[in-house]
DNA sequence: TTAGGGTTAG
């Protein structure tokens, strides 16, 4: 038009603007702006420019044009600028502009109201949303379908589903957008069933779903999952497209649906056949694999994405980081972190938290901590929860608890996940006071009726030695899932309460709840602790016969242990030889333990041969066999084995015991003499030892590893970590106080006997939780029936 | 100038 000579008129410019928008041609927009800038700008042209600048991504210049309009601004100018901010995700700016219009008493039209509402929805700013709602009512734009639809979405995104539903029900003539908005609201608030029934209701109302409706309802099929409905939507989508070419969003939603329904072959075929794909489509496949635990596949697709030169986005990284964590692939994970930095996704919270989690799961806590300490993320509850879970994943239970406390002192409100993450730490440490405090906290937050939280509480109480509290809580739970039954069963097993466990097991079988492999493991391990061979065999058989559950390695290890302890070593060995899975170290270890108990050298050697193949670095098994040799007097063999161990540099995991005194944890490692109170502890122990000798106790040194003189062996026994912890506790608590010790390994035979005697001499109740179970010592007796 | 949509961390 310039070739023609004259300056372009307003109409030509207005006609040109939509094309500029379509191509996001910012430079062209500036040029047009330059042409009109010296003239008296008509509001209609200025509004067009504001819109075009926003669509080209430049809200700053758009705002300048808007500001320059000053007095000649009309309702459309305000609506355009607010909508422009929303278009560019500058929701706070949109809301501020809305508030400014209120201060200036400008009358806004329905477009401005709709845009402002969507900004309030995106920022989940309920107060703001409600004030826009009142404004809409005052100004009489409230009866508009678009305004009502925007209100429905705003309330849904602010978590006010009841209000959203009420408003939706009140819309007289619902259009397809209103229906789709409500379907989407149900999907996003985790109500897939409601979404699907609304989707069906809409069709009965005579409204034919469009592309957006289908894309909105597909995640509901994935969440349920309902593969058949997903497939029928796929057919519907193809039928309504004569060329059968799916658009990117619909293709992506379908890929995600198939992947989440576990139908990876369909997901892959569809994905490969899609004509239009973007990075989100790739993410759907990558995340589908990652969430199903198919980490290698996820990474494989990621590398394929890179090989075609497509750049990942932040969601891609959120998919691949957990895949690295799953594979414990720290190097790959660190490369992903590098990529996050390269592409500038560091400021994305999802990415940051996934990176923190990846490092923690791969055992690199310092890297997690460094990322976490970057202040900006310090305010996010998920970052805190990730850190708590990360500490727990690495066995740092006291760090997990400390982090939880720090979080509350920083005024970050813990949520359900925080509680579920920190409760296992209190169980791990048997930190009852902490556990009780958390329980009251749970009640205050109103989380007590939440099933996973309740399950954690049962587990915590039983691990803290309070089986009665665990039972009471379990019995009063309104809703239980299979996990509730499983943790209760495991609690009975941990406390050696086989009868209660077996009766609970038959209750759950009769209750109609579907039992799983862990239910069986709980029941079997209760039988193991009680030595109930017949019952255990029956349960093991019914696993396959009645529930079609294939026993896992853990079940076999448990059965071998049960049979072996009962002296049925041949049956145990033939079970190992006939099992369909390749026996692992736990299975052979159970046999070895039983061989020690019954001094069976022939079988012990078979077990050790297999163990040294499976776990060449683990010394514990060698110790057991050398103990068997020593026990039957084959000293030369015992010595040879120990010499071979020291040559190959095998190390035994050092024993460690903890005790809680006045809210502080004290840890003792075997042989540690560095404690400030060591002298007094030693003296106290010598006195106890003299008493024990008077009672006729002769130390059983067969569990001592070192090849030394008998007297020295006794000294080594005396430095076993549980004895250090017990003497420390005796020194630092009032007479008569109960003592609770936790140990990382199993208690040895002599420590077991000695603890019984100490409980009698000192008149204390002593509870020891070792890696296998609880031992209650009182007045010279121990509650457990299966110990030596 | 406007409302609904695909992938996302603990």
Automatic annotation (TrEMBL):
What keywords are assigned to this protein? Repeat, Transit peptide
PANTHER family in UniProt: PENTATRICOPEPTIDE REPEAT-CONTAINING PROTEIN
Q: Name one GO molecular function term.
A: zinc ion binding
Outline the PPR repeats, range by range.
74-108, 175-209, 278-312, 380-414, 481-515
Q: Which GO terms describe its biological process?
A: RNA modification
The DYW domain, residue ranges: 696-788
What Pfam families does its record include?
DYW_deaminase, E_motif, PPR, PPR_2
* This protein's record includes keyword Ion transport: no
User: In its UniProt entry, what is this protein called?
Assistant: Pentatricopeptide repeat-containing protein At3g57430, chloroplastic-like
Q: List the PROSITE patterns.
A: PPR
Entry annotated with the keyword tRNA processing: no
């Amino acid at each position: 038009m310039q070739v023609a000579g004259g300056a372009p008129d307003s109409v030509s410019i207005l006609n040109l603007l939509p094309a500029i928008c379509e191509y996001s041609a910012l430079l062209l927009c500036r040029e047009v702006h330059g042409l009109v800038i010296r003239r008296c700008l008509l509001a209609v042209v200025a509004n067009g420019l504001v819109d075009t600048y926003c669509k080209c991504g430049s809200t700053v210049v758009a705002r300048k044009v808007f500001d320059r309009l000053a007095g000649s601004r009309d309702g459309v100018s305000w609506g355009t600028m607010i909508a422009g901010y929303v278009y560019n995700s500058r929701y706070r700016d949109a809301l501020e502009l809305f508030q400014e219009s209120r201060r200036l008493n400008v009358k806004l039209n329905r477009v401005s109201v709709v845009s402002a509402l969507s900004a309030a929805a995106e920022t989940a700013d309920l107060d703001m949303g409600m004030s826009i709602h009142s404004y809409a009512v005052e100004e009489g734009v409230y009866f508009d379908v678009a305004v009502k639809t925007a209100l429905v979405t705003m309330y849904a995104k602010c978590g006010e589903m009841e209000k959203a539903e009420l408003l939706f029900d009140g819309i007289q003539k619902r259009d397809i957008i209103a229906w789709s908005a409500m379907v989407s609201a149900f999907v996003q608030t985790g109500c897939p069933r409601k979404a699907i029934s609304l989707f069906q209701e809409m069709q009965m109302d005579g409204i034919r779903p469009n592309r957006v409706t289908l894309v909105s309802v597909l995640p509901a099929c994935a969440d349920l999952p309902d593969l058949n409905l997903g497939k029928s939507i796929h057919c519907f989508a193809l039928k309504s497209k004569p060329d059968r070419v799916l658009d990117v969003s619909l293709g992506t939603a379908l890929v995600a649906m198939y992947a989440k329904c576990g139908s990876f072959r369909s997901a892959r075929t569809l994905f490969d056949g899609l004509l239009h794909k973007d990075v989100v489509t790739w993410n759907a496949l990558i995340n589908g694999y990652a969430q199903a635990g198919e980490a290698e596949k996820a990474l494989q697709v990621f590398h394929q994405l890179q090989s075609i030169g497509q750049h990942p986005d932040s969601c891609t990284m959120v998919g691949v980081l957990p895949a690295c964590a799953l594979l414990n692939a720290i190097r790959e994970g660190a490369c992903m972190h590098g990529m996050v930095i390269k592409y500038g996704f560091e400021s994305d919270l999802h990415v940051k938290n996934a990176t923190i989690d990846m490092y923690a799961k791969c055992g690199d806590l310092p890297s997690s901590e460094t990322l976490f300490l970057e202040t900006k993320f310090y305010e996010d509850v998920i970052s805190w929860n990730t850190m708590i879970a990360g500490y727990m994943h690495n066995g740092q239970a006291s760090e997990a608890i400390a982090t939880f406390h720090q979080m509350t002192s920083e005024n970050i409100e813990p949520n359900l996940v925080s509680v579920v993450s920190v409760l296992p730490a209190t169980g791990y440490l048997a930190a009852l006071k902490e556990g009780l405090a958390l329980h009251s906290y749970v009640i205050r937050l109103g989380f007590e009726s939440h099933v996973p939280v309740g399950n954690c509480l049962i587990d915590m109480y039983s691990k803290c030695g309070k089986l009665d509290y665990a039972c009471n809580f379990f019995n009063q739970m309104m809703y239980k899932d299979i996990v509730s039954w499983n943790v209760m069963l495991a609690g009975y097993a941990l406390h050696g309460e086989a009868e209660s466990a077996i009766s609970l097991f038959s209750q759950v079988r009769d209750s109609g709840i579907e039992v799983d492999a862990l239910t069986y493991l709980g029941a079997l391990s209760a039988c193991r602790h009680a030595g109930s061979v017949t019952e255990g065999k029956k349960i093991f058989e019914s696993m396959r016969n009645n529930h079609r559950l294939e026993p896992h390695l853990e079940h076999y290890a448990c059965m071998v242990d049960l049979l072996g302890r009962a002296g049925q070593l041949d049956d145990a060995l033939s079970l190992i030889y006939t099992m369909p899975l390749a026996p692992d170290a736990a299975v052979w270890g159970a046999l070895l333990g039983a061989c020690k108990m019954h001094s069976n050298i022939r079988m012990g050697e078979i077990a050790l041969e297999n163990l040294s193949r499976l776990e060449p670095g683990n010394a514990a098994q060698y110790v057991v066999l050398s103990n068997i040799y020593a026990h039957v007097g084959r000293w030369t063999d015992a010595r040879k084995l120990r010499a071979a161990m020291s040559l190959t540099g095998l190390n035994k995991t050092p024993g460690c015991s903890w005790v809680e005194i006045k809210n502080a944890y004290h840890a003792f490692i075997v042989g540690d003499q560095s404690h400030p109170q060591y002298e007094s502890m030693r003296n106290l122990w010598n006195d106890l030892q003299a008493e024990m000798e008077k009672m006729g106790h002769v130390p059983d040194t067969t569990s001592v590893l070192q090849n030394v003189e008998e007297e020295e062996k006794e000294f080594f026994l005396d430095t076993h970590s549980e004895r250090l912890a017990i003497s420390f506790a005796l020194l630092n608590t009032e007479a008569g106080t109960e003592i609770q010790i936790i140990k990382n390994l199993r208690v040895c035979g002599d420590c077991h006997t000695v603890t019984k005697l100490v409980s009698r001499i000192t008149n204390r109740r002593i509870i020891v939780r070792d890696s296998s179970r609880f031992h209650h010592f009182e007045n010279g007796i121990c509650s457990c029936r299966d110990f030596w």
